[in-house]
Write a structure and sequence with these properties.
Order of helices and strands: HEHEEHEHHEEEEHEE
Helix content: 25-40%
Strand content: 15-25%
Largest sheet: 6 strands, mixed
Number of strands: 10
Radius of gyration: 22 Å
CATH architecture of the largest domain: 2-Layer Sandwich
């Protein structure tokens, strides 16, 4: 009798475990990409940040406002915003504020980038953002992709603003510059944080030790508080434990 009872109990427990797993999988797969309920306006969480939302303006590599940017604001998942608050608090003690160029980016904006990239005749902003490149290499070199970590809601593009000089810190390069000058290892070893002067610019461009160190100040603070850097862009960071690693959200950028 005992063995019969034990067999029935085990079968019941196995069924419960399987059902629970199925429910979890269902919940995970049922994330609505148009649901902004787990997102926040960054300035509500990190009041010291400055915003310069490039894709809401015409000063970006396309030269016009990008689809999906309805207001000049910045959004992130709650987890990423909380971590960014810790970064901001640390850097403020060092005399800096954070300046954000972009954060959450809806899929419709990425689609706009892709359409622009396929239009080889549109080179309006070439002089400012990709003077050394022919536009048809932008996809192959990874400057434009059909999916962006920004659309998952825990990636941010940013720089430092010097409180004492009331100017952006000199990073030796501009946001969204398509070229090796934007790589974190341009001019030095980012893992060691050491300037080497080794610059692989096709045009002989270089950065100074001070400019490299400014990039490292931002990088170290972001990494200390849970963000991981990107090998192609010194300004780009993604939360390591991002809550939606497989979801590309679609709602527009506007105040929530």
């Amino acid at each position: 009798m005992f063995f019969v009872f034990w067999a029935v109990l085990c079968t019941f427990m196995a069924a419960c475990i399987q059902t629970s797993g199925e429910e979890k999988n269902t919940v995970k797969s049922a994330i609505d990409p148009d649901d902004a309920s787990d997102f926040v306006v960054i300035t509500d969480v990190v009041p010291d940040v400055l915003l310069e939302i490039r894709y809401y303006s015409t000063y970006n590599f396309i030269g016009s406002r990008v689809d999906g940017y309805l207001e000049p604001t910045a959004l992130l998942t709650r987890q990423a915003a909380d971590s960014l608050r810790a970064v901001s608090d640390e850097l403020k003690e060092q005399g800096y504020r954070l300046k954000i160029y972009d954060a959450y980016r809806p899929q419709m904006a990425v689609d706009h980038f892709v359409r622009w990239g396929a239009d080889l005749a549109d080179t309006l902003m070439k002089t400012y953002f990709y003077p050394d490149l022919i536009k048809d290499v932008l996809f192959d070199r990874g400057y434009i992709a059909r999916r962006s970590s920004h659309s998952r809601g825990s990636t941010v593009d940013l720089t430092l603003f010097d409180i004492n000089t009331e100017k952006e810190a000199d990073m030796g390069g501009t946001f969204d510059w398509f070229g090796p000058e934007s790589h974190p290892d341009f001019g030095g070893d980012p893992e060691a944080g050491q300037y080497t002067g080794k610059c692989n610019s096709p045009q002989g461009r270089a950065i100074t030790p001070e400019q490299f160190e400014n990039r490292m100040i931002l990088r170290r603070a972001m990494m200390r508080h849970g963000f991981k850097p990107y090998n192609e862009e010194w300004w780009h960071f993604t939360l390591k434990n991002e809550p939606y690693p497989d979801t590309y959200f679609t709602f527009p950028v506007q105040h929530l």
